Amino acid sequence: MSSVQIRDVRKSFGNFEVLHGVSIPIEDGQFVVLVGPSGCGKSTLLRMLAGLENVTSGTISIGDRVVNNVQPKERDIAMVFQNYALYPHMTVAENMGFSLKLRNAGSDEIGKRVKRAAEILALTPLLDRYPRQLSGGQRQRVAMGRAIVRDPQVFLFDEPLSNLDAKLRVAMRTEIKELHQRLKTTTVYVTHDQIEAMTMADKIVVMHDGIVEQMGTPLELYDRPENQFVAGFIGSPAMNFLKGHIRVNGVATFEGPNGVKLPLKNAPAASDGKPVVYGVRPEHFTIADDGADAEIVVVEPTGSETQVFAKLGGEQVVAVFRERHQFNPGDKVKLKPDPGVIHLFDEATGKRL
Amino acid sequence: MAVLAEPIAQPKRSSLWSRAFESRNCLGAMFMVPAVAILVLFLAYPLGLGLYLGLTDTKIGGAGRFIGFGNFVSLAKDSVFWLSVFNTIFYTVTASIVKFAIGLYLALLLNERLPFKSMIRAIVLLPFVVPTVLSAIAFWWIYDSQFSIVSWVLIKAGLLTRYIDFLGDPWNARWSVVIANIWRGVPFVAITLLAGLQTISPSLYEAANLDGATNLQRFRHITLPMLSPIIAVVMTFSVLMTFTDFQLIYTITRGGPINATHLMATLSFQRAITGGNLGEGAAISNAMIPFLVAAILLSFFGLQRSRWQQGGRD
């Protein structure tokens, strides 16, 4: 186990810079998730950490060692690939033992460590099978087994669950998290799925267009997003954004599209008339007599909760209720955001106010 | 809704012909007729005729009698025939081994990031594109006893004092035609193996790299096993094509000197067409069949789809 330090790392392909100076400290034993939309540079960063891509500038260290120019095989890291990259011509046991075999470990030693890893991942009955004979989830576990067997300093996961069906993905999520709690190996996990990030991470790093937008614990990011991008990216259904202005005359309010008035707990200093974006999470709407007028568009019950799409000041918003309101499309309701938990962003910069 | 409720117009009870068109089996059979006709006419019939001719003493211009295995009995005592068998095996084995080695090397090279890669690939394909007879004539000049460019260069470089007699000496001639065959056959092996290499996922190499494999270990543990199915196919084809080669030999040496480069195919042609003994020529050709079947069986059983490639859930 080791800490990992990424300091001001840049990456260019030719003249095209994809990472613009990224710094991420990762503590020993931490489970860090790099999350962001496609093309944000998260996978490139992971591959640089693995040594599969060169670092254009900046430094990456594992433990106390700067590894910029260290060969992948000497970095003592294990990676789980998106397509698993299992060797098709080797059995499960051979796949898992391959790295040990290359290091000239004795067959007793290999057998022992493969067996232990197989027990952890419930792969023991499959050890003699070939990858073709396994299901997606089993292949996924073999890929993890291959990583565990080596007992590396750092585990790297590159979107490992994106090829699995929804149900299996949820199960594997728990399995990976449990595995980390058991082994306590420093882990860097790349995904574009914010739910995976929220559920698994000790620390989430939200990336966008080659920069880090925000890092923090899942709930920090959820409760206090630093900017509009993070606010919109984290959380499902996504946060509602309404453009408008702050009005301070007696009580601070937000004046949204078509004159919709929404409550504010307190306005930022000297902000009367300031153009802002008002962000409210779907679950922070309530039905209240003093709410703003809205018209129901679509109702989607999921059982545990009901998602309601409504027009608020001409803009579509989504609200989530745990209560079972009887709504029909076209119904007029009064929606009120909880002013204590709303988010305000500067319209020009997208920064939190 | 009312529209949907109307009964769909039933097609009229149709003729036998149109019903045959609707039946899967009849239609399938009809589509196969042209292919079967072509195969029977141009493949099965000549093959059958060849097999039959081998059992007769047919000469050009004569009908010939059925003589059973007479031709084979006399061939068994024919030293030229046995020389051609030796030549064919020597030619096939040496040329195939070298073609495989050079082809694999070129394929690995072309699979790397190289400058001018597509140009190099085109150049590699060139020998395959040139008509065989043309390239044979070029080799004929290269091997000429008076005008050979190879001899000329070596003499100018001071490495030799007299011209090499490429095609006049039995072993020189054998090696010369083998080299010509290699030159001609390498592109097929190289390009096919390259296609095989490109199907190997780069992430396997990355995984092996992280697992600690050196370049050589990656080749040994990833490339070679993953490529083995393609190798089996390519080498089977290569062996078959080399074994039955005719054009190169016939153009460069016509089987000479003193039958040193006669392959079974060229000997068969010489006896049957030039010599007029169709029956004997056919028998020589038929004698190739056991060798070819053996080569096919070898690759079929020896290099069968390995266990890891076989089905199972996917």
From TrEMBL, chain A:
The keyword Acetylation does not apply. GO terms for molecular function: ABC-type transporter activity; ATP binding; ATP hydrolysis activity. It is found in: Cell inner membrane. Keywords: ATP-binding, Nucleotide-binding, Transport. One of its GO terms (biological process) is carbohydrate transport. GO terms for cellular component: ATP-binding cassette (ABC) transporter complex, substrate-binding subunit-containing. Pfam families: ABC_tran, OB_MalK, TOBE. Residues 4-234 form the ABC transporter domain. PANTHER family: BLL2173 PROTEIN, MALTODEXTRIN IMPORT ATP-BINDING PROTEIN MSMX. NCBIfam families: PRK11650.1 (NF008653). Involved in beta-(1-->2)glucan export. Transmembrane domains (TMD) form a pore in the inner membrane and the ATP-binding domain (NBD) is responsible for energy generation. This is Sugar ABC transporter ATP-binding protein.
